Amino acid sequence: MSGLLKLALKLLLGDRGKFLTLVIGITFAVFLMMLMTSMFFGIIQHSAANIINTGARIWVMDPDVQTPQNSIPMPEYVLDVVRSIPGVDYAVPLYVGAGLVRLDSGTYQAATVIGLDDATLFGRPALLAGRPLDIYRNNAFFVVRDANYAKLGSPKLGTTFEINDHRGIVAGIAKVSIGSLFGLPTLYTTYGRATQDLPSTRYVMSFILAQPKSAADIPAIKRAVARLGYRALTDREFTTRNDRFYEFQTAMGTNILIMTLISFIVGLSIAAETFYMFVLDNLERFGALKAIGARSSELVTMILYQSLVVSFLGFGFGMLLASALVAFGKLRIPNYAAIITYQNILMALAMVLLISGISAYIGIRRILRIDPFVVFRS
Predict the structure, then answer these.
(1) DSSP labels for 155-210?
(2) In terms of Cα–Cα distance, which of 295, 297, 352 is closest to 319?
(3) Are strands 186-190 and 108-116 parallel, antiparallel or unpaired?
């Protein structure tokens, strides 16, 4: 069998034009599929930035909330009830809202405002400049230094600004694990300042962040919150709920899926047609092997081997190009939301194997119908 596989490899490399066409076609398909799926996973991850950056174990919210950006305010008594639930170690309020910042140039910039619990500052980001207690100063805000930082004029410590007709001062420069998806700068302040100084509805509490005493207490906490008419989700469950919203209730998931399918069809059409032409060109050689005693199973193995060699080469080159472009994009484009994870790698690999299998099947059907003595008729 090893001799037949060496022969299969020689036949594959013998026609360099078709060999390169096969590899380039699969490379191009993998490249497009990886780019589309990496953009999708990157956008999904950035859309859950507030969940990831806050680090809370349990989020309590209105049942109709789908994403951390679209909160429905809750009355204050819900916080008191959640704190009294057995198994809750502590619970704090969180405000998530929008503000309109007036810059020194006179222009306005929309921003996301996050209000942290006054007593604990639970969920505060790490600081690059300033001290955590500086947030208690009059009109103090922490500004997140991310891709949208420059939209506020790249403020320094002590920079003053107006937000919703109230004075603000930069008391700290913060960093977060994941930047915002929607191109808005992020400001942190205390819960009291955010709810008092910024216009709001009758209820102002966006979420309740709760910490269970142990993981075993989480189901009971969920049931107790549900009896109140609200919903409690773990951070992973809330992230999944956010992901499903963007995947199935917006056009983003559908559009990226269509582009991924187009990439798959392009790679399949190029690979299948070229591989079939390769089999036709080597039909006499396969017929000769069959005539001298090669079994059909051995010929099938040769075709599968050739298809897998081409597919894995194309997969490797496609992964290399896609990874290089994503890395370059992150270096050169601040808001570039793309991430390569094991999910999209496995997805691309599965599609490549499917392309390989279909291409090999087309060739196998032709090989199995060969008349062993066709090579001797001339």
Answers:
(1) --TT-EEEETTEEEEEEEEEE-SS--SSS--EEEEEHHHHHHHS---S--B-EEEE
(2) 352
(3) parallel
CA distances (Å), origin 323, targets 28, 42, 314, 320, 344: 13, 13, 14, 5, 12
Distance CA 310, CA 17 (A): 13
pLDDT top residue among 10 and 159: 159
Q: Which of 29, 23, 4, 32 is nearest to 278 (CA)?
A: 23
Name the token pair of 149.
């930082």
Q: What is the pTM of this model?
A: 0.73
Partnered with residue 244 across adjacent β-strands are none
Report d(CA 111, CA 99) in Å as an integer.
Answer: 5
pLDDT digits (tens, 9 = 90+) for 33-50: 888 888 888 888 888 888
Ramachandran category for residue 326: left, alpha or beta (phi over 0 → left; psi -120 to 50 → alpha): alpha
- Polymer length in residues for the chain: 378
* Contacts with 41 (C-beta within 8 Å, 6 or more apart), sequence order: 338, 339, 340, 341, 343, 344
pLDDT tens digit string along 315-348?
Answer: 899 899 989 988 888 888 777 778 888 888 888 8
For residues 164 and 162, give the distance between their C-alpha atoms in angstroms, rounded to a whole number.
7
Instruction: Identify the H or E element spanning 68.
Output: none
In the block, residue with structure tokens 């209730």: 249
Structure tokens at 215: 């993981």
Cβ atoms of 278 and 15 within 8 Å: the answer is yes
